[in-house]
Specification:
mainly alpha, about 60% helix
Length: about 100
Amino acid sequence: MEQLLDDLDKTPVSEPFPYNAVALGQAVATARQDAGLTLDGLAERSGVSRRMIVEIEQGRKSCTVRTLHSIAHATGVPLGLLAESACRHGQDEPH
């Protein structure tokens, strides 16, 4: 098993990691709205700046797991659900 993992670490990735910032932004905006929060309300509750939230929601900025966790906790949405939304390949539904 250890050899397999070592080999995987040395194998180049042939495709870029599937990251969809627009889908993540839409998921964050939906979570915020479903929680009944304004941008300012989410910023206050999560400790993430309003500007950063706007940029995430518009798909212009990616964020750290820590930031996403703060947003997830503030909206009551599981972190995994928000993170999964970023892995969509331009589809409406996660694969």
